[in-house]
Amino acid sequence: MHSRSSIGIDKLSIPLEHGIGLSAFSLERQPCYVLLSLTCHLKPECLRPSASNGGLSDDWDCLGIGKSVNYSALGKTLYSALSAEQAEGVTSLSDLARMAAEITARDYSASLQAIEVLVERPKALLFSDSVTVHRRFRLKTGEVESCALRDETHTLIVQDLRVNTIIGLHPHEREEAQRLAVDIELDMMRLPDDLLLGRYGFDYKTFGRFAYEYLSKSSFKTIEALGYHTVHQLLQRIPSQPFQPRSATTGTDEYAYQSQDDIYITLTVKKPSAIALAAHPTFKITRCLKDYTTDSPTDPNPSMPTLVPPLRPPPALAGTHDAESLLGLEAEVITAYIAIGTNLGDRIKNIQDALISLPRISEESIGTSFTGQRFLHVTKCSQLYESEPMYVVDQPQFINGALQISTNLRPVSLLRHLKAVETALGRVKTMVNGPRLLDLDLLLYGDRQIVVGQRGDEEGTLGNGCGWLQVPHWGIMEREFVLRPLQDMLGQEYKLPGNEDTIGAQLFKLDDPSQPPALRRVIPLPLPAQPLHLSRGAPLVMGILNVTPDSFSDGSSDRVSDTSLEHVLDLAKSLIAEGADILDIGGMSTRPGVKDTDVSVEQELGRVIPVIQALRIEGIDVPISIDTFRAQVAEQAILAGASCINDVRGGREDGMLEVMARMNVPVILMHSRGDSQEMLSTAAHDYEADGGTVQGVRREMFETVARAERAGVRSWNIILDPGIGFAKSQDGNLQLLRALPDLFGPETGLECYAVLVGASRKGFIGKVLDRPVAKEREFGNAAVTAVCCQSEHVHVVRVHEPRPARDVIQMLLAIRGS
């Protein structure tokens, strides 16, 4: 312990009219404020009485005057200087911290040994309280210029990152996601300059987003394991040096990626729900990369998707390189991205077959023998889009998407494998850019830039079995049908290695408002149904067909009588004639208050299966949705001819997520809490802990999506339903409809998914209109449809009466287009 003294200012609030860096929603120059905390470490002589008067008592009472720091004057100076028009070159929190230290040193250098500055920006990230930069400067003796400040500490702190994840040893702990609070400290002293001197300094948004996504999708058994592996993942996201040539005698890659070993990250994990009589248990860990040796335990989540771009792309591998240098068998695990497209035959089945075939690696498929395990895991999917053919226009329309994969195949071996999968599934090469049963292109290979051969080289001419290879793929920046799926997974702010423009900026350049959209997003329905095109401003109409006597709004006993099948078929045809794009068939009422035991599985199957089969026998190819929360009913309905699953419990019942993944059909995941009786409780309507109904529903839907994707449900198959009328208060239902952009808009984590709203004839409409009879709420239904259409965040509306809904949509489109 050493004697020392300091004087400081804590949390001085400084408004910044033009902001600093990007907002939580990635907007530039947005007004904000920062909290500045300053600690001035005093020299010992600052607290000694003057020798001139012999140390009288007055001197002891007035220690520091003239020698210490006038905190009042300093506070005013800092406020005035930092809140003024943005100083030139000050674009980051680190810049602000240094500027504050320079101002302090200029006025008080004679009194100070060191200056410590914390600049905190509240609400800098969507999922944490704040981001703080902590810098400590040592003053060189006898110098007062700004250059006399020497960095001793430079740390980034992400405070209270709030995540919900599966964690715990016991079965009851692994049923639902638990809330964790995580603090992350990154030692930035050893970061390379280009990571610190970017447009807005260090990219803490990308860093924080990766941490949030990784933690949310993890499923560790202890907080120790979670902390250990999370730090490792974060450290691996911080490249510090470009590709460096290695000695040819090492037997390793000609080019290998080097990472800094002595950058430290400290992670603190708090688990509030673990101990009833304590605030939380805490685990804290500090590690650098060299702590993770080859003997360290492997991450139990090896296929965890990398959802954000690396913090810095390395420079390109200069020139054209010998393919064999890229064929080495010892390879690191890489996250790569593949484009997938098809315009012949059953296009949806072609894509599904490719997903099954891609992980099946053989010596034949990569064109060389190998020892050890080679793997390829599909870790995430984009949405699917239908596009007009490009370059050669006289051919059928394509369905395009993209896949994120984790693999240890080298780039040339990976490309060979992709071509082998194309061939195995029946692709026959014809003309360049012509029709194809399946097209698989390697878009990105980590953050590397690679060139093998030259454009136009045929397969086999280089002895590598693939011909020309360029990564990133040469055509990405001119192809919306590639950029859009990549944006689904990487975000609009991602920059391809070697490109200055973000994906979002490039898509904006390609957009031509005078032309119809080049891409149409689709729901990939299996035959006999055809893929449905989605439009945010013109929702599809789902018609409700309840084959049950006790639906809350339209049940009647004749629906399930012995002679009811013909009548139900007539009702189905009537819904189609009125404009229903999809039929939603339900055999069990889910209205609040109904017991699950009121209808057995056998009864539910007996109601819905004959109807589905009869519709298909009659040649009706309209998409059919099965409205059920029971896995057995869902599976049997799909096998009988249904096209998708509509689950009011969002996959929470036993076996449902497994059925959804195995059937590989679109699924509607609705937000709700508890069963039909539990959702009536006061507790089920309480979202206060999340800050309100909108925030609570958004968080719980994010968890629902994470569970579904972990279970193997493809992203392009997921449709979200906010669950209007289920476990919501009267005001909560209205708030959700008003806040649809806040639920599903940019930066919510849910913006990539299709959205369905089903509020037709619900009780909250009856309360507003004083219409106790459900069938008399048609004008309220129309208002809800209009709100959904106007929001441009809803792709499907679920209604009892398709014709009025379609009229509302058509009228709004006419007004909008006038």
UniProtKB/TrEMBL annotation:
SMART domains: FolB (SM00905). The keyword Transport does not apply. GO terms for molecular function: 2-amino-4-hydroxy-6-hydroxymethyldihydropteridine diphosphokinase activity; ATP binding; dihydroneopterin aldolase activity; dihydropteroate synthase activity; kinase activity; metal ion binding. SUPFAM superfamilies: 6-hydroxymethyl-7,8-dihydropterin pyrophosphokinase, HPPK, Dihydropteroate synthetase-like, Tetrahydrobiopterin biosynthesis enzymes-like. CDD domains: DHPS (cd00739), HPPK (cd00483). InterPro entries: DHP_synth-like (IPR045031), DHP_synth_dom (IPR006390), Dihydropteroate_synth-like_sf (IPR011005), FolB_dom (IPR006157), GTP-CH-I_C/QueF (IPR043133), Hppk (IPR000550), Hppk_sf (IPR035907), Pterin-binding_dom (IPR000489). Residues 539-810 form the Pterin-binding domain. Its cofactor is Mg(2+). Signal peptide: none annotated. One of its GO terms (biological process) is folic acid biosynthetic process. In the N-terminal section; belongs to the DHNA family. In the C-terminal section; belongs to the DHPS family. PANTHER family: FOLATE SYNTHESIS PROTEINS, FOLIC ACID SYNTHESIS PROTEIN FOL1. This is Pterin-binding domain-containing protein. It comes from Naganishia liquefaciens. The lineage of its organism: Eukaryota, Fungi, Dikarya, Basidiomycota, Agaricomycotina.
